[in-house]
Specification:
Arc Repressor Mutant, subunit A; 2 strands; two-stranded antiparallel ribbon; mainly alpha
């Protein structure tokens, strides 16, 4: 099989292109795509534990810790003891983290639009469906 026909190679190249696009759209706000994902989870349900966030985002604990540490340094979140489990840390949005919701969601909409610009709506839905199927197959 030629390298360009290998699914891993094709997906990796596409993921790198999409990641760079999202990174560029989020850069004016000082937020990375990974940090955006955490913020999105917290906008949906504030006060989740680091473990809950890592599970939702399919990240290992050390990666999640690094992302949260950088977000805390930027003043986007605070980590505090979870009242239900003192061994766990609860991640809570700051006013700065909350205030970014509208502009970041607009930036992500624009990044998605750009990433899918060469596809019509049906093709975009099919692509997402197929990618979800690949993910489900690995579980």
């Amino acid at each position: 099989m030629e390298l360009e026909q290998c699914l891993n190679f094709v997906l990796t190249k596409a993921q790198q292109a999409v990641h760079q696009l999202f990174k560029a759209e989020l850069a004016p706000y000082g937020v990375t795509p990974g940090q955006y994902a955490v913020l999105k989870c917290l906008w949906e349900e504030n006060g989740q534990t680091a473990k809950q966030l890592a599970t939702r985002l399919s990240l290992d604990g050390s990666t999640m810790t690094g992302i949260l540490d950088r977000m805390e340094q930027k003043g986007l979140i605070v980590k505090q003891p979870d009242p239900k489990d003192r061994r766990a840390l609860q991640v809570v949005l700051t006013p700065v983290g909350r205030a970014l919701q509208d502009p970041l969601e607009a930036a992500i909409e624009e990044a998605n639009r750009k990433a899918l610009a060469r596809l019509d709506e049906a093709q975009a839905l099919t692509l997402k469906h197929l990618l979800h199927n690949i993910e489900i197959n690995r579980q």
